[in-house]
Design goal:
By secondary structure, the protein is α/β, with parallel strands linked by helices. The chain has 2 domains: 11-44, no CATH class; 54-133, YaeB-like fold. The protein has helices spanning 11-19, 36-44, 57-65, 72-87, and strands spanning 54-55, 92-97, 100-105, 110-116, 130-133.
Length: 134
Amino acid sequence: MKIQGSSFPSIEQLQNQYLNTGRAKSGAPTQGDISFQDILSKKTDGIGQSGEVKFSKHATSRLSDRNIELTEEQVERLNLGAAKASAKGINESLVIVDSLAFIVSVPNHTVITAMDQTETDENVFTNIDGAVII
């Protein structure tokens, strides 16, 4: 079916109108145009590469409640323990640093909880699939 003399735009005109909206004349994205890949890269950059563990809200609360203050050297050893657990394919690890015990979600690089040796009832830890003693 052919429509002659109509005021309807052609497909090419619609493509140009809608597909090129928000783009600079050069075709490069403007500041407001961010691709999904750009967002994904920003969110995942450094995950697993920096080696730095984060502390969950629960772990931070436990450290505070139990008056546990970590030295820089202990944090470095905790990071080393998490890295070793990652290298062995462990998902949920017990990392022992000095007299402190940490449960670490290795894929997330997150300390889930922390305690000192006096609070480890009977020295039993559950829901872990590996342990690292540093």
